[in-house]
Amino acid sequence: MQQRFPLKPLCLLVLQALACHAALAANPADAADAAADSNLAGAVVGPIQTVEITGRGQSRQVQNINKTDLAEALPGTSPLKVLEKLPGVNFQSADPFGAYEWSTRFSVRGFNQNQLGFTLDGVPLGDMSYGNNNGLHISRAISSENIGSVTVSQGAGALATASTSNLGGTVQFFSQMPSDELGLTFAQTFGSDSTSRTFARVDTGLLNGVAKAYLSGTRQRTDKTKGAGGQNQDQLNSKFVFNFGENKLTGFLNYSDRREVDYQDVSPEMVQRLGYQWDNYEGDWQRAVNAAKGQFTGGVNSLDDAYYSAGGLRKDTLGGLTLDLNFGSHVNLNSTIYHHDNDGQGHWYTPYVPTDAANPISLRTTEYSIGRDGVTSNLSWELGSHTVNFGLWGERSNHTVSRNYYSVTGPADTMVFLSKPFRTDWKQNFITTTSQYYLQDSFSAMDGQLKFNAGFKGMDVAINATNLVGSRAAGTLSAEKSFLPQAGVNYAISRDDEVFASASKNMRAFQPGVSGPFSQTQVAFDAGSAKLKPETSVNLDLGYRFKRADVQGSLAVYSARFDDRQLSVATCAGIVGCPSTLVNVGKVDTKGAEAIAVWKINRELSWFNSATFNDSKYKSDYVDGKNLVAVSGKQVVDAPRVLFNTEASYENAGWFARLGAKYTGQRYYTYTNDASVPSFWLANLSAGYKLKAMGGLKDLTLQANVTNLFDKKYLGSIGTNGFTATDPSHTLQSMLTGAPRQLFVSLNGKL
């Protein structure tokens, strides 16, 4: 047994990484692949399921996180955090839930969050960035308890994905369907820092054999892990399904009201001088006033070491209606219309703009609004051994963003939507029109042993920017490509062994909003807009996957060429809000290998491992003003070369437990690689007992979660205020410390 121990997990690791590469599950464009996929889902026999190897028979690198993984995570945990166990995925946050949006950092194979694509039930979520212009974060789009599964494509996302930002992979979230049984589902969590999370859902059950629906509500209240203030959220989710014949009408409507007080951004030098527990002054107004006047105490030596407080407010309504029509056994049409409204404000008490002569502090806001409408339509047609998929996506987004200042005279609860500022620095409006189409043919030969797919997509994204106040840029920009090809092949060597390969070309459209080309001055925009090129990438993957009685997994190798990469370079402290500089850093080359292994030790115990080696390097120097920044050959910022995850899962006689640990390698936060944050290990524990019934209750589960089990002190999120070319003094204030050890206890069940 000791001789087999190091060998099997390693094989498994190799295995499952490959499996990831192939699939784009549950997407109309991949109907044929998805059918093959369903035969392998849950291939690990027994009660334990960790990651489903959903790529069997496919030509893409894809993995699926199932409901079991989501259910045993800490309630309220962002599904992005649950994905961190997968190869190629780097996730960081400053809170134990991974839902604090200012701190959330999610990247895949060196592609950061705003270079990936995200959808919920096919509805585009944009790039889910903090100052989003065309979407919203998944933690606001739906309560985590209502998510049924998450599909990750690390390399080539499916052609049908409704995204104009997926240079790298895609993440697709799928909500649970309403239950066929009438009932009430409930969950209550209590824990560290006065955390209380209440979730309740009512299912109608199947009505007259044709319709069913649910309505849920979520209320979460939690204090920050350090400093003063809370991070609170209220949500309402609803969904219905109406079946008529072989056809189906599905709809959802979700609402979120999130209000989170921020942690203070720090630098490595600040952490060394002030400690990991350092935060803003909230609760001590006089100290904030004194600091604004240059009177520092307790190791503080700068205006930017702390502010009085900061926070973010977001209100969202997201809805969609999907009609799924079957025209006989070979033709399917799936069409979705959707609408999204958003109001948001980011608050920051600033000592740089006084309220008046007597009050050296004001409250600075960045204010957002989004109104977007869209439609997606996908047609699948089976023609013998061929499956042809064709689809369209169109969206119109109306986005307004402004920078305002409000008077403050002392400590007060300002976590409310403010109006009537005394000063406005700038205000812009953006109308963005998106058109996208795709065509793909998938066919099989050699009695299904050989499968091949090929197709292309085209897109046109036009932005019309209007400057309403201030000197930021106005004008028009368009990103258009009529032919972005994609192809893949899968060959089954045997019943349990296969190889696959895929290639794709993608484009990321220009971004309106608080960053991007229009965040420059009009002079800078006019001088450079004619030369701007949208970012493009070419992704190549090659892999092998296998399955045995007690071991399965995959291994994949990949490369990506990134052209015309745009970087928004901060020109001052984040709170000052200077116009950024948009820099084209030219080419980036990425090469790497991913592996996954799942070892089914026995019926009760399984062991999951994933490993990633990712080498992302800039290939071109760039000029910032008159200065040459020599970055060719340097590692891409916030792109660790090594990631490793291990997790043991146990379940027997109602008892269950998961113990996992994640290793994140060194990460650079300067383009010249002269400054970095160190590598670290982080462990988490989940354990509990499942009781089938007690009295009138059923499916009762008592669960305990411990995050950061060994209370590791580390720097998690980096780049919160952007990156810089060089930082020899380690004073760039653009990172957040990770959350300390936290304990939570949850009880959930059904009535």
Automatic annotation (TrEMBL):
Membrane topology per record: Multi-pass membrane protein
Domain (TonB-dependent receptor plug) ranges: 59-169
Subcellular location: Cell outer membrane
Xref: InterPro entries: Beta-barrel_TonB (IPR000531), Beta-barrel_TonB_sf (IPR036942), Plug_dom (IPR012910), Plug_dom_sf (IPR037066), TonB-dep_rcpt-like (IPR039426)
Domain (TonB-dependent receptor-like beta-barrel): residue spans on this chain: 266-709
UniProt superkingdom: Bacteria
Keywords: Cell outer membrane, Ion transport, Iron, Iron transport, Membrane, Receptor, Signal, TonB box, Transmembrane, Transmembrane beta strand, Transport
Annotated Gene3D superfamilies: TonB-dependent receptor, beta-barrel domain, TonB-dependent receptor, plug domain
Pfam families (UniProt xref): Plug, TonB_dep_Rec_b-barrel
Leader sequence segment: 1-25
Keyword Nucleus appears in the UniProt entry: no
Family stated for the protein in its record: Belongs to the TonB-dependent receptor family.
Protein name (record): TonB-dependent receptor
